[in-house]
Amino acid sequence: MQLKSGVRILGLKAEILLGMVIAKETLKEVAPGIDFVVTACVDGKHKEGSLHYAGQAFDMRTHDLGEPSRDQFLVSLRIALGTDFDAIIEDIDTDNEHIHVEWQPKTGVNG
């Protein structure tokens, strides 16, 4: 696992750290040889109310994946993470394209 320069992890919830581990292992299965790179956690600029600021989200690099691998990875990741996580592709086909993962339990309990 690699952290992009400047990524801050202080204050991340244990659940989102687990999500990172799951994402790393899922990427290794779907796209062997592609590095798992976290590009944002509690740092950076995100929309108001973003779960990044609560330590419940991270972004990961996708530009090293081709479109078919990226899409296959996203499907596999959603299955592996389960229903308490959301995973979406943001900024598709731009230099800022990434997968955003957040821990947001559907029971209404956010730790």
Write the layout of secondary structure elements.
Elements: E1 2-3, H1 14-30, E2 37-40, E3 57-61, H2 67-81, E4 85-90, E5 98-103
Parallel strand pairs: 1-2
Antiparallel strand pairs: 2-3, 3-5, 4-5
Helix pairs in contact: 1-2
Could you explain the architecture of this structure?
The chain has 111 residues and is of the alpha+beta class. It has a single domain (2-103), classed as Muramoyl-pentapeptide Carboxypeptidase, domain 2. It has helices at residues 14-30, 67-81; strands at residues 2-3, 37-40, 57-61, 85-90, 98-103. The protein has a 5-stranded mixed beta sheet with strand order 1-2-3-5-4. α1 (14-30) links the parallel β1 (2-3) and β2 (37-40). The longest helix has 17 residues, at 14-30.
Short description:
With 111 residues, this protein is of the alpha+beta class.
Q: Based on CA inertia axes, which overall geometry fits?
A: globular
Order of helices and strands: EHEEHEE
* Cα-to-Cα separation, first versus last residue: 25 Å
CATH fold descriptor: Muramoyl-pentapeptide Carboxypeptidase, domain 2
What is the alpha-carbon Rg in Å?
13 Å
The overall pLDDT average reads 91
Keywords:
single chain, 111 residues, alpha+beta, Muramoyl-pentapeptide Carboxypeptidase, domain 2, five-stranded mixed beta sheet, 5 strands, 29% helix
